[in-house]
Design a protein that fits this description.
By secondary structure, the chain is mainly beta. It contains no helices and 11 strands.
Length: 121
């Protein structure tokens, strides 16, 4: 079955860095656009970044541009989110998301369990 497993979160001081990973299985990873989405305490879901199938198209919300870098390794079925110059407002649970329309025309969306990122001194 489809699985997305995030890792790499933790507690970091402001200005620090973390690299999140999302390992996928159960679908043709190289054919699917992947997003990172976060949810801060008491707030709704917020799209952070996305990457297209070959990794050449990358997209970011304005507040993380220049600080976060998304990448993927299709040979390892893995998407990464390198986060630098972290700020307290980046504190959230980070999820990777994969969605597509299958051969029957049905929309499929899958999420990982999330990884907690806490930025605090």
């Amino acid at each position: 079955q489809v699985q997305l497993v995030e890792s790499g979160g933790g507690l970091v001081q402001p200005g620090g860095s973390l690299r999140l990973s999302c390992v996928a299985s159960g679908f043709t990873f190289s054919s699917v656009y992947i997003d990172w989405i976060r949810q801060a305490p008491g707030k709704g879901l917020e799209w952070v970044s996305g990457i297209n199938t070959d990794g050449r198209g990358t997209y970011y919300r304005d507040s993380v541009k220049g600080r976060f870098t998304i990448s993927r390794d299709n040979a390892k079925n893995t998407v990464y989110l390198q986060m630098n110059s972290l700020k307290p407002e980046d504190t959230a649970v980070y999820y990777c998301n994969a969605d597509w329309v299958d051969g029957t025309g049905a929309y499929r969306a899958y999420w990982g369990q999330g990884t907690q990122v806490t930025v605090s001194s």
